[in-house]
Structure formats: structure tokens, C-alpha cells
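Its record is quoted verbatim for completeness.
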Amino acid sequence: MSSSNDSLAMQRITKLVDENSFMEIGSLVTARNTDFNLADTDTPSDGVITGYGLIDGNLVYVYSQDASVLNGTIGEMHAKKIANVYDMAMKMGAPVIGFIDCAGMRLQESVDALDGFGRIYAKEIEASGVIPQISAVFGNCGGGLAVVPALSDFAFMEETKAKMFINSPNAIEGNRIEKCDTSAAKFQSEETGCVDYVGTEDEILAQIRELVSMLPLNNEGDVYTEECEDDLNRACASMDVMKGDARYLLSEISDGHAFFETKADYAKNMVTGFIKLNGMTVGAVANCTEIHDEEGKTAETFEAALTVKGCEKASEFIRFCDAFEIPVLSITNVTGFKACMCAEKGLAKALAHMTSAFASATCPKVNLIAGDAFGSAYVTMNSKSIGADLVYAWPETKIGMMDVELAAKIMYADASADVLAEKAKEYEKLQSNVVTAARRGYVDLIIEPADTRKYLVAAFEMLYTKCVCTPDKKHGTK
């Protein structure tokens, strides 16, 4: 009684994996519960297709919920099949990809269904940091099921039909779905930070294939995932002119200009994603002050300031990279912190999380200072002080406590304009320029923007064999 090859759940798997590579596991499993006439209901594969296949020759494990069987609801055997996929994936050291299209818990199975939810949660947590976990929401994903993509390393949502929520929009006091659809892909990608990419079903499947090809298969896998055909010494064009647009910078330095951005619609002032340097996958975390359109015109601008959402986005990404020994590149262009009541409520905690993520990461870490780097905001962005292995900076950057004119006004509050101008120049010369920082060892090398790629390639090749002995403790608390 295997699932039909014509089911939508199976079609999604077939589109994802290499041709003829999928092998189903547990195809004869059906619901075991008999309450409420469930025994008289046909439940092929108990509403979830599980198995393994290949993506560009790489082994992956997949589960795909079948909404045509009891609306894809999770019962005892349904959950056991997903848990079994996780057990096999961890043994083999291969990613797990889950396709979610589910009406939630199966009411006929009550506490067995609740136990099933818990089993899935436990397996995701057990697998965290061992194998990459990817979820794609193609239909309903409500209530406790929304925890599943949130526990995944990467989550995708279909742009029109997918719904993801803890509480339905109409259950939120003062809200109606017509007013604000909190279950929609747009809200989830822009406001919650749970979703990395929104698109059509085919676009999502293509994105997942691209992501899998860039990641190590497990926490002992190699970050060299492909051969590099790009010139390692290629000059990077317009880097200094486009320094505010981190997406451009990262695309420009990467092999073949490839950049896979994560959480692209969330906290756009902080950019995270993966690039390639001589075939090596590198995780990137970068401040962003502007976004340019395809014609090179400025489409959006942001303050050069750290925000709550931006710091939390960076923290989560850094911890993923460190768990899989993926090197981290940071691009610093920041002058302070977001100043508003909303930010003040959570900024200290968010900054603590990001600082801890950078400082505790034992993977190779390189910082590129591409713009102004002022105050403790600069320190938290993977500075030498908190453990960066190498720090590069461009010649025109400024590194110091704050803007020189503001520093002069604070130190000489009652001085005339001429005196303030003179003191500002003096402060810039002595305390707020890149050469001063380099002389004190906070910058390892001042490089030309066009040469950025070749220096980063060399840096991460040198750091490939990095090994760190950490203090004997269970784990940090931040």
C-alpha cells in the first residue's frame, strides 16, 4: 500500500533529487490507531513519504507530507517515519530535507499524536550541528508544527499557498487576516526571521539543490565542495564605490560571482549567506547601508548601525557556520547602534548574542573593514579583540571611538569652530585612522579594494587547518 507516484508529495521529491535516485523507505506503513473508525480509512504511507536520494551526487534524506491522506496530519506512525529518517541521516552523515504540507496533529490519535510531535522535535534538536536540516513549507504549517521549520537550519516558503503560524491571524486580539496575514510567506520572511527564501515551488526546489551543493554534508564534512574555475587573483571592480552594498561586495569576491543569501528579506541592514573562495564554502556576515538595483541605482538605504534583528540574524548564522566548521568572513561598515525605544528594549541582549557567537566560534574567522568602524559596534563585528584570526582594511577606512568631529566637540565643548576643526584633524591623525590601528596590531594588512579577492583566498587557505583547544566546559550560556 505504498504512496502513489502521482501524489503531489512524491512529485516534489522527484523534482528535487537527481533523476531516478530516490528510494522510498517505509512505503507499507499505515496508521496503527483504530479509534473513531480510523481502521476503515485508507492511510497509505500514513501521510508521509520518506526515503533517500541524491542531489548532484550527494546523499540526502527526504520526507514529504502528503495532504491527500488525512490532510497530512501527524499521527504515531507518521512521526515514527520522520524520526527514522533522522536516525538514518545522522548515521550516514547526510542532510535532512522536509516538505511540510500538514493540517497539524491527527485528532483521532490524541496523545499519540502529541508524542509524535515531541519525537520530531527531539530528533531535530539531536541532529542540530551534526547534519544540515532544511524545511520547505508548501501548504499548511500551523500551531506546534511551526516549530519544525523554526528548528531547521534553513526554511523556505511557497509564496501563495503556504501558511505558517503559531496562532492563526484571526486568533490574535485586534487582528484580522484581511488586516495583517501573519501566516503569509511575506510576513514570515520579513518579520519573524524564520524563513530564508520565498518563491514558487520550482524556485524553492532549485534553491534547495543549490544550497545542498554548497554545504558540507555533516559536521565532519569538507568545506571544499567544488573545483574553482575563476581566477584567484581576479581584480574586483567598483568595490570602494559600492562599499555600502554588501550583497554586491560578496558577489564580486566570490568564485563565479556566486552568492547564496540567507534570510534575504529579514533585517536587510545585516547580510548573511554563503560565497565560494577557490572552491571553499565561506559564510559571510556583513553590515549593509544600501541596496542597489540592477541598473546600479540606490534602491534602499539603511543606517550604519547595529539593530536587534540584524544581530540575532548574524548570531544564528555564525553558530551554524561554526558547528559545521565553515569559515566566517565578516565585512564591517558600522558607526554605532540603532537609537530608538524599540531597539533599546532588546539591543543589549542581541549584541551579547552576536558578540558571543563571534568570540566563541573556533572556525577560521577573517574580518574585512570596508567602511567606517567606530566604537563598540566595531568591536562586536568580529574585531581582532574578540578573536578574528586576520583583519584586513581598505586604505580610506576609519577606525576609532567615533566620528572625529563629534569627538572634538566632546573633548573641547567650549572651543571655537576653528579650534574644533583643528582638534578634529589632530584626533583623526592620532586616533581615528586605519594606519594607527594597523600600527597597534588591530589591522593585519591594509589592502586595495580591487585586491580583496586574492587576499581573502590566501587567508582562508592558510586558516584551513586551524585547530583550537577550548576551555573544558559544557557550553556557554549566551
